[in-house]
Amino acid sequence: MEKKKIVQDPVCLMYIERDKALATSIYKGTTYYFCSHMCKDRFDREFDKEQFIRKMNESMRQGP
Ligand SMILES: [Zn+2]
Fold first, then answer.
1. Residue 1, domain member (yes or no)
2. Any idea what DSSP says for residue 3?
3. Ligand 1 centroid to 13 CA: how many Å?
4. Which of 13, 30, 57, 62 counts the highest number of beta carbons within 10 A?
5. Structural domain of 47
6. 3 Cα: distance to centroid of ligand 1 (angstroms)
């Protein structure tokens, strides 16, 4: 049986099931998942997307 895939929203840093993500965005070949269209909007409008990704990677290292 396949385990549910948990992904992290890079904007609000919330953990969500991938199937339940309300929005996605592809940046540099990687798909990012968002809990809401608001978060996707913030990500899409941000010029420096790396800051979100950096923050997400830091929080992943520390664990939820
Ligand atoms: Zn979010």
1. no
2. P
3. 7
4. 13
5. 6-62
6. 22
